[in-house]
Amino acid sequence: MESTFLVTKSFKHKVDCFCSSKHHTNTIPFQRGDRIELTEDIKNVEPLGWYVRIVVNESYQVYVHIDDLEQFHDQNLICSEMDLELEYNYYSYKVNASLDHKDQERFMYYVQKLEDVNYVLTKTLAKTSS
């Protein structure tokens, strides 16, 4: 299973708190380009279900319900790093093919897609290297 995901669209998520006082939630903003790493720390909280600890941008950690992570992925809010790199390669290929065919409309379309993917990849690299 892929353990590193990148945020492709900014969103906010309510995270449950498991402290012994009364039940409450915190809202965490995820920004486009954030890096989410899954850890091996998994907890089953009765009756809520399974939670996995994630590390965001190597700076803070939080437990997120596994179903929420799947929902983020299904809604294209997050994407595995490998999938995004493959997407970058595909769009690079399509840009070159549209140049070969002198198809300006497709060229412009794929350049925009390539720039979008490149933005997420480079923003993520900048966050982890700083």
Shape: elongated
Helix content: 40-55%
Number of helix segments?
3
Distance between the termini: 27 Å
State mean pLDDT (0 to 100 scale).
90
Class inferred from helices and paired strands? alpha+beta
Low-confidence stretches: none
Radius of gyration: 18 Å
Q: Compute the number of strand runs.
A: 7
Strand order of the largest sheet: 6-5-4-1-7
Strand content of the residues, in percent? 25-35%
> The biggest beta sheet, please?
5 strands, antiparallel
**Topology as H/E string?**
EEEEEEHEHH
Number of domains: 2
Protein name: IDEAL domain-containing protein
Organism: Pontibacillus chungwhensis BH030062
Question: What attributes characterize this protein structure?
Answer:
7 strands; alpha+beta; elongated; 130 residues; two-stranded antiparallel sheet; five-stranded antiparallel β-sheet; 34% strand
Q: Can you offer a commentary on this structure?
A:
The chain is about 40% helix and about 35% strand. A hairpin with a 3-residue loop joins strand 4 and strand 5. The model has no long low-confidence stretch (mean pLDDT about 90). It contains three helices and seven strands; from the N terminus they run ββββββαβαα. The relative contact order is 0.18. The chain has about 130 residues and is an alpha+beta fold. The chain has two domains: about 5-80; about 80-130. The strands form two sheets. A five-stranded antiparallel beta sheet has the order 6-5-4-1-7. A two-stranded antiparallel sheet has the order 2-3. The radius of gyration is 18 Å and the shape is elongated. The protein has helices at about 65-75, 80-100, 105-130, and strands at about 5, 10-15, 25-30, 35-45, 50-55, 60-65, 80.
